[in-house]
């Protein structure tokens, strides 16, 4: 373990601004550059000709350019040599060495102009480019690592009466630890002492303080804000939320997007192909058409300069890494480059209504007392009395709707009302239609009135008992309430639509999603009302879980019918959004399975391809936009890098490109592609 | 045995996948990942041969990408 810690420190240092190795490398390049400038001046000013005469000046130039060449490129030559010994023929070092040595060797052809300056420059700028790549990649790796740095370094535990810092890894389930204000919670656990507010920003991207008191669960990675908490660990460090998230994001770069594997495969073919072409270009025209050897060899050497596919091989994975790392900061975890790629092509988003667009909890949204109805003493029925009677009649029911009626009653008044079980007798549940019970009421004189029959249920229950009820204009589950044979009003219960649900749908359409579909087990009218209110294009109600799979299958078939790529897969993708509870089969079946609101739910994190840490559906559009932006950058780089290389190859073949142009083109493209790729990390504004 | 080893230096995705391919060919290797972005090398291999496989892997790293050091 101790050893591991030491390498950790070494590794951390290696992620620094510029490593020791890079600094030495930079200094060497600067020295070589200075020597190169001196050589250029001597050569161009004619000083060499004055000193050594002709043709002595050419050999003198050879020597003075050889110095900066060797200073800048001795390691490349050494690596090339090692490569040959190990049988790794086609590595970039070898090709660069051949190109530059070739440029120097052209001095042997008296008819060719001298190319030593170019040989030295190619090596020099190749090294500048390599150093920049190394620096830029290291820097973006570092900033992505910093973005993901939500892992706590230590945990405070009481040992021998003193608070000691220990490695969070050392704690086991059941151990208690202390989290001071400003510290990160190291392990998932339950508060045993203290109360505080915790900030979930590191996990969800949004700073929403949550209250944490005794017996509340707290999630690792959150920052404790106000008070000192003592927490009992419920999961070991390795299985705590924060570790799982880090593991997931880090492993995401192991799951390669198709574009990424394509580039790797392409790179393997590209280098040998360009090398082969270079050989043909150098040999065939002079042999068959009597071209000048030195001219065609030079063109071949220029080919070798652009034979390194670095710009692509570095910038494409960097873009994916940046996109995945960046989106983890806004609470969107994408499990791999392949999913990011699929997400960018999503044009159909299917929602499982409950838990994604709605809160998934049934609540009383309205109480409508009948007007002009009064009991035998002339006391009218107001909303609160209707609710109180219904809540008592439902006192012993375990139906979720009964629960929400009781909750609404408890939350009313002073906010701490309790159901008085003693007032309820003779309860009869009536087969799915409702409940009948005798309920007494406290009367104004402090005595309790006689028990009267209360009926709570649907219109069928009312009809059975010969009570006329009024329909309600609101959608939801309607509970009619009758007291002592009188119809006294109804209670409307509905699944509450999330605040940002309508905005989420609007943003999805803005982001280019053409079809939004809502699936629900709920009734037709409820589904229709929610769909209309949110602007959802298509809905299917009264579905059983297996029907949801069938619906998704059907939509997937639609996608495939609208066009396939050359791999026979649908060009446009379907995303399914669920709350991660009981919808694993559908999450797996969809092209992209998105689970939301799953902070702390290991099972949901497992089943989904994209995980939204908070329960805001508007994050789905943000995820799609991040994915589209990342893919846009990836393709910009591919087209740009290949375009420039192709152009240089064509120009070199027809003799219009100098080596200067080739090396600048090559290094320049790599630099620009890397800078472009680094933009993928900027996702903050996507969340808005 | 499963081990995650950190890397220091530069490695491109191309070399990383070449290294993966070669390590995969070693007898007893179940799974191998060379992640050029996170600079992590993950090796799953038989317990009894693990040290030998690790040594061989380090040699392969040195052969294909000498500027990348394996922090064993």
Structure described in brief:
Chain A is an alpha+beta fold and 688 residues long. In chain A, 51% of the residues lie in helices and 17% in strands.
Plain-language structure description:
The complex is a heterodimer of chains A (688) and B (72). Chain A is α+β, with helices and mostly antiparallel strands and 688 residues long. Among the domains of chain A are: 155-251, Calcium-transporting ATPase, cytoplasmic transduction domain A, CATH 2.70.150.10; 338-359 and 498-629, HAD superfamily/HAD-like (Rossmann fold); 360-495, Calcium-transporting ATPase, cytoplasmic domain N. Chain A contains 23 helices and 22 strands. A seven-stranded mixed β-sheet of chain A has the order 10-22-21-20-11-18-19, with helices on both faces. In chain A, strand 18, helix 18 and strand 19 form a beta-alpha-beta unit. In chain A, helix 9 packs antiparallel against helix 11 (310-329) and helix 17 runs parallel beside helix 22 (618-653). Chain B has two helices and four strands. In chain B, strands 2-3-1-4 form a four-stranded antiparallel β-sheet. Classes of the chains: A alpha+beta (688), B alpha+beta (72). The A-B interface holds A 7-8, 10-11, 14, 21, 79, 82, 86, 88, 91, 133-134, 137-138, 141, 144-145, 250, 253-254, 260, 263-264, 267-268, 309-310, 313-314, 316-318, 321 and B 6, 8-10, 12-14, 17, 33, 35-40, 63-64, 66-67, 71.
Topology:
The complex is a heterodimer of chains A (688) and B (72).
Chain A: H1 2-14, H2 20-44, H3 47-52, H4 56-86, H5 92-105, H6 116-147, E1 155-159, E2 162-166, E3 176-179, E4 189-193, E5 196-199, H7 201-204, E6 209-212, E7 217-218, E8 223-224, E9 229-233, H8 241-252, H9 258-289, H10 293-305, H11 310-329, E10 332-334, H12 337-344, E11 346-352, H13 353-356, E12 358-369, H14 383-393, H15 400-411, E13 424-430, E14 434-439, E15 452-457, H16 459-464, E16 477-483, E17 486-497, H17 501-510, E18 515-519, H18 524-534, E19 538-540, H19 545-561, E20 573-578, H20 584-589, E21 592-596, H21 602-607, E22 610-612, H22 618-653, H23 659-678
Helix pairs in contact in A: 2-4, 2-6, 4-5, 4-6, 5-6, 5-10, 6-11, 6-23, 9-10, 9-11, 10-22, 10-23, 11-22, 11-23, 12-22, 14-15, 17-22, 22-23
Chain B: E1 2-9, H1 13-24, E2 29-35, E3 40-45, H2 50-64, E4 68-70
Antiparallel strand pairs in B: 1-3, 1-4, 2-3
Helix pairs in contact in B: 1-2
